[in-house]
Specification:
- With about 160 residues, the protein is an all-alpha fold.
- It is about 90% helix and about 0% strand.
- It has 2 domains: about 1-40, no CATH class; about 40-155.
- The chain has helices spanning about 5-15, 20-40, 40-155.
- The longest helix is centred in the middle third of the chain and has 113 residues, at about 40-155.
- The model has no long low-confidence stretch (mean pLDDT about 90).
Length: about 160
């Protein structure tokens, strides 16, 4: 390390302040060792700054690559999920169409059965109508006969 510490000037200041030459030199020497071994110079700080800047740039590059890789993986996962969801929707639609076709078939069978039952009821009504007409005609004939008999008895 190269410091701008001038030990001679430092020692002279102590001598001017009342210290002996030996005391001032010893103090200047001790302080020089301390400054030289523990204090950083501007060039030391500049070198450290350069190393830190390079390390930060390296980290930034690693993070950028990791983010881009994660982004790619995430995009791939999203696309796979989209395909999976699309396939599930297509399968669901196909199932729904099949179920709808089954329901339509069942409805057609129910409709045919209902039409058959309606026709049976209609035929039964026609039979009942015929029977009712026969009963009415029979009652009219019997009533006419009874009226004729009563008329004969009364006259």
């Amino acid at each position: 390390m190269s410091n701008n510490f001038n030990a001679v000037v430092f020692a002279e200041r102590f001598e001017n302040g009342g210290f002996t030459d030996a005391q001032a030199k010893a103090l200047a020497s001790a302080l020089w060792e301390l400054v030289d071994s523990h204090l950083a110079t501007k060039s030391d700080l500049a070198a450290l700054e350069a190393r830190l800047t390079a390390a930060i740039a390296g980290c930034r590059a690693e993070f950028t690559m990791a983010i881009n890789a994660s982004r790619g993986e995430f995009t791939t996962a999203i696309n796979a999920f989209k395909v999976e969801v699309t396939m599930a929707i297509i399968a669901s639609r196909a199932e729904s169409k099949a179920d709808l076709a089954d329901v339509k078939t069942d409805l057609a069978h129910v409709k045919a059965e209902l039409l058959e039952k309606i026709n049976e009821v209609h035929l039964n009504l026609l039979k009942l109508k015929s029977e009712l007409i026969m009963w009415i005609v029979s009652l009219v004939i019997v009533q006419t006969g009874v009226t004729a008999v009563l008329f004969k008895f009364l006259h």
